[in-house]
């Protein structure tokens, strides 16, 4: 007999979040860094994100899981200072190279896992941005508590939407394996609610589907976990992509309309915060 819950606020969403991630296999971000650096380009995700960020030229910003700087650099051009934190030395190396190339001298980097972020180390900043970086964090409530303490004004977070990873899930189904399953965004929203944080939530209306110059580029785009596939599975992936992708002679690119990003932005105002 199922147990009835009288008060939905009594649901331990943090526990459910951790259970969803219990079998997560971490990616080697140092190994992935060159591909991310090479692939980074302007897309409608970034336009949607930057349209919603509330930034002032005198702000300090903490970019959580900054990676190779695809979000960090544009933000740095709008604010006084950006602190980028990431667990991958290679990602930070590419970020620092990009900062030099674009003459962005107002960026500081910290090599540290997101799970170890603390107010005692970072102190106060005006705005915290977590772009596509918290989906796989297991001690999520602890991290959110620290980020909420750090931000004097706003926290902006993007996480997976309900239709993300369409073609990856279809391929894994063909292989007979289960796609790496991240918690849904409703877990995240309810964790915040139970923490007393009443956040805004919006789904990005992203229209652009991804395009690739070759089948090999479509394979090695950071979405498929090639590090977990055997050689035979990689060959099956190549055949799968040849089957589902259409070649557009005008753009000379491969695409499928199913291969479109789906992201949710969750944000809240912290103007009256007292530490």
Can you put this structure into words, describing what you see?
- It is a single chain.
- The chain has 275 residues and is an alpha/beta fold.
- It has 11 helices and 10 strands.
- It has helices spanning 13-20, 29-39, 44-52, 72-76, 89-101, 119-122, 140-150, 166-175, 185-194, 215-219, 231-244, and strands at 60-64, 81-86, 107-111, 125-131, 151-160, 200-203, 209-212, 246-248, 253-260, 263-269.
- It has a 7-stranded mixed beta sheet with strand order 3-2-1-4-5-10-6. A 3-stranded antiparallel beta sheet has the order 7-9-8.
- The longest helix is centred in the last third of the chain and has 14 residues, at 231-244.
- The N and C termini lie far apart (45 Å).
- 29% of the residues are buried.
Write the layout of secondary structure elements.
Blueprint: H1 13-20, H2 29-39, H3 44-52, E1 60-64, H4 72-76, E2 81-86, H5 89-101, E3 107-111, H6 119-122, E4 125-131, H7 140-150, E5 151-160, H8 166-175, H9 185-194, E6 200-203, E7 209-212, H10 215-219, H11 231-244, E8 246-248, E9 253-260, E10 263-269
Parallel strand pairs: 1-2, 1-4, 2-3, 4-5
Antiparallel strand pairs: 5-10, 6-10, 7-9, 8-9
């Amino acid at each position: 007999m199922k147990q009835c819950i009288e008060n939905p606020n009594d649901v331990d969403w943090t526990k459910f979040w951790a259970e969803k991630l219990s079998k997560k296999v971490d990616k080697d971000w140092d190994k992935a860094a060159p591909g991310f650096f090479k692939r980074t380009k302007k897309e409608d995700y970034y336009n949607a994100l930057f349209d919603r960020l509330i930034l002032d030229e005198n702000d300090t910003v903490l970019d959580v899981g900054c990676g190779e700087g695809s979000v960090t650099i544009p933000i740095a051009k709008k604010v006084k200072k950006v602190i980028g934190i990431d667990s991958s030395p290679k990602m930070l190396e590419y970020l620092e190279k990009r900062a030099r190339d674009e003459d962005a001298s107002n960026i500081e980097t910290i090599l540290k896992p997101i799970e170890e972020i603390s107010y005692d180390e970072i102190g106060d900043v005006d705005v915290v941005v977590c772009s596509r970086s918290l989906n796989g964090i297991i001690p999520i409530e602890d991290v959110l508590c620290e980020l909420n303490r750090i931000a004097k004004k706003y926290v902006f977070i993007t996480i997976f939407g309900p239709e993300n990873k369409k073609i990856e899930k279809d391929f894994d189904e063909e292989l007979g394996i289960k796609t790496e399953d991240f918690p849904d965004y409703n877990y995240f929203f309810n964790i915040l609610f139970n923490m007393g944080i009443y956040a805004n939530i919006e789904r990005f209306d992203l229209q652009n589907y991804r395009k690739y110059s070759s089948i090999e580029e479509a394979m090695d785009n950071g979405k498929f976990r090639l590090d977990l596939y055997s050689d035979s599975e990689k060959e099956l992936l190549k055949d799968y992509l040849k089957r589902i992708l259409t070649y557009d002679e005008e753009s000379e690119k491969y695409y499928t309309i199913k291969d479109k990003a789906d992201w949710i932005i969750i944000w809240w105002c912290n103007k009256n915060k007292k530490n």
